[in-house]
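Dock flavin-adenine dinucleotide; give full complex structure.
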Amino acid sequence: MTRALIIGGGFGGLSTAARLAHAGYEVELHEKLPRVGGRANLIERDGFRFDTGPSILLMRDIIEGAFREVGADPDDYVTIERLDPAYRVFYPDGSGLEAKVDRAEFREELDAIEPGAGERFDDFARIGETLYRGARKHFVERNFASLGAMLRPSQLPQFVSLRVHDRMHRLVGRHFRDPRLRQLFTFNAMYIGMNPYTAPAIYALLPYNDTVEGVYFTRGGMYALVEGLERLCLDLGVRIVTDHPARAVLHRDGVAVGARFDDRDIEADLVVVNADWPWAQRELLGRTPRSPSGRALRHGPSALNLYLGVRGGLEGLRAHNVVFGGDYEGHFRDVFAGKVHDGPAYYVHVPSMADPSLAPDGHHVVYVLVPHANSDADIDWDAERDRVRRYVLDDLAAKGWDIRDRIVCEEVIDPPRWAEEFSLDRGATFGLSHGVSQVGWFRPHNRDPQLQRLYYVGSSTHPGAGVPMVMLSARLVTERITGDHPPVTVAERLDA
Ligand SMILES: Cc1cc2nc3c(=O)[nH]c(=O)nc-3n(C[C@H](O)[C@H](O)[C@H](O)COP(=O)(O)OP(=O)(O)OC[C@H]3O[C@@H](n4cnc5c(N)ncnc54)[C@H](O)[C@@H]3O)c2cc1C
């Protein structure tokens, strides 16, 4: 059989492993950490189950497709539920609202902030839907054979309809005047590590996505989805080895032939690298990473995460909560300028609101994410960790959730830790930035330009970051591989 070696067991690696095994390859996956999941990892402590990275699950059809497209029923592996409300937001002036699933109720929430905004939301959502469906069809769910294939004249109407010339904050600003609603419909750019003030208008598909298409939750937390995929891989015959970091991709005469590990070399007919693309270029191939057009790469920001096991209730918080700071624009300016920001916006995830089994009785899992400059910034991270923790806990206390004396266990992941432990270049939690010059054909390709039989999957490759996008990148790289090197059975190999 054709042997495929996958380096890395994040969502990208796992999903590719399942697809290749289903297509008839013999698949081995090697993961450097003690368990698979990558950024979507798990910290288990004192009866609490903390997801480390992704928490907001969008695009259910793509998630389920990762199972269905390999002949499995997703319900056999994971329980997916829609959250209502999708999230709750809090503004510094004490006001707030909930992104309710029921459109009439959501419109009322919007009208309470800005009269008439509810009706204008319908128009905004229509534009969001056009962007969402158009982006998926024309750019996201396809491999580009060449730059010409992406930029050919017949694509021009798509570029115009996808508003690549416009900015997200300007599009939102044309529909909503109140700064609070402008924040509500632009903060979502951070789902892929973009600055709402510079993000192209096409990313208005994100607020459409979370308010209309829905935010989903996997029972058991995000790691339950990782476990479901891991089980799917095992059921399809994938061999998974953890605690086993690759040290180099091996190649001979311009062809990838396997990978070097501390204890041995493993040969394969093709290699798929799921480790963060720029990091892998440097560490596994000894190259200076550059974009397909030869330009220097632009990395996205990072995050400072607190994981808190909390005793007692948290009345009023939902599973997903966004707390806006006093200077929304300034926060993003600082994050992208590599600076520390006083009074940042932050996100609080309390998954135990949706699934109490994630924490001991009478306790909650609290995950706090503060968007932050990446580890390239000249910042005293020890001091910064303490400062951010104090700020968030004091701010939550001022808002009525004083958990300062109720924390029974805690952990922090700061940008340098994202970089070192999770092998993320510059600790960029969402990988390379998603500006117009780094998407589509301009994003690192899933097929290596120099070495045959070497492929990539994951956040920093096409189509981009986020759990559903990474699962799509697995579908796209599988299409490439099956097109380039259809699986050969043992009998065929013996016949040859
Ligand atoms: C804090 C945070 C919050 C996020 N929030 C969301 C969210 O709410 N919703 C959402 O959809 N997305 C979110 N994301 C993004 C999402 O987590 C990622 O896009 C996705 O999980 C990336 O998957 P991946 O397979 O590309 O990479 P990774 O998860 O990075 O997987 C790569 C794997 O390769 C392994 N590896 C690296 N080097 C080697 C080596 N030498 N040998 C063997 N293995 C190696 C790594 O250990 C890792 O397991 C978030 C990310 C972070 C960090």
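Observed: The longest strand covers residues 302-311.
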